# Entry
Amino acid sequence: MTHTAVPETVHYTIQTSPIGQLLIAAINQEIVRVAFHNQDFDTVITGLQTQFGGPVHRDDNALQFATDQFEEYFAGTRYSFQLPTRQISPDRFNSQVQQRLTTIPYGQTRSYGEFATELARPGAARAVGSACARNPMPLIQPCHRVVRADGTIGDFSGTPAAKKYLLAFERGENPDAPTS
# Structure
C-alpha cells in the first residue's frame, strides 16, 4: 500500500447504476477508487483511510462532476470518461496496464494476450489479468473490455453478470440488469 507523507481527505459518494451501487472516491477532485456493490463498502472506506492516512467523508456534492459522467455513460450518451484520476499503483506494470485500458474503444474488447502484446510484453497475459483485477478505477479504466482468448468474459471485480451486462450494453444490445 502507498502511504502519503501528508494525510489527505478522501470524499466519496454512492451512486445507483444498472449494475448495482458504485462507490466513487476522490481526493481534490481526482478519482482514486471505484468500487462495486459486491465489495464491502465499509472495508473499501477503511482501506482508503489506511492508504491515504486521512479521513474519509461522504460528500455527494463534491463528486457531482463524476456522478454526472457515470449517469451519461449508463444512459448510453458517454463513451469514455473525462475525469481526472490519480494513479496510485506502486508497481510500474500495473500502472502501465491500468493507464492503457483507456485506449480500448467503447464496445470493443481485447484478449489478455492481445493486450499484453500491445504492451510489448507477449506472454504476459496472466500478469495483465492480475493488473486488471487490481484496477482501482474500473469503468473509468475499462478493464471489463479485456476478455479471455476464447471470447469468454473472465473475471471481474464487479461480478461476472456485471461484466457481461457492460459488454452487451456497449455493443448496443439491451441487456437485462444483472441480478447478482
User: Anything to note?
Assistant: The chain has two domains: 8-75, 92-170. Residues 92-170 form a domain with the Arc Repressor Mutant, subunit A fold (CATH 1.10.10.10). The two ends are 30 Å apart (CA to CA).
